[in-house]
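Pipeline run #58 for the internal structure catalog. This entry was flagged by the ingest filter as a single-chain record with no existing model, so it goes straight to prediction. Upstream metadata was stripped on purpose; only the residue string is passed forward. Reviewer on rotation: M.T. Logging verbosity set to normal.
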Amino acid sequence: MPGGRPTKYEPEMCDVVLELMKDGASKYEVAAELDIHIDTLCEWQKPEVNPEFSEAIKRGEALSRAWWERKGRKNLENKDFSYTGWYMNMKNRHGWSDKQETIDHSDKPDDIDSNWKVEFVNATPESKS
């Protein structure tokens, strides 16, 4: 039997997780409300450590993201809404990113000339004489 301090975990904490996160709360807010360190929350959310708490956190994260997305959607026409703040929150908390495309040209056939030459000519009316 491992030694150390007994766990503070109680099954009712799952309800607290869901209640807070359905209103957009983060895991840090949940940890503060439960009066535990964020490291403890991260340990408890491992399925092999506590399957019930792990499921509550997963559901809570989905609820939190939905809350934040709803805020943005419902404020589309609100000129006082801080879209920059909202967007930065979505990027930082929910993994949103600016779309970046990379084109792979490694499969380009060898017979295609990728060295193009562009010539600029004077297109003013005087040049047509």
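catalog note: The radius of gyration is 27 Å.
catalog note: Residues 7 and 102 are 48 Å apart (CA to CA).
status: ready for reviewer M.T.
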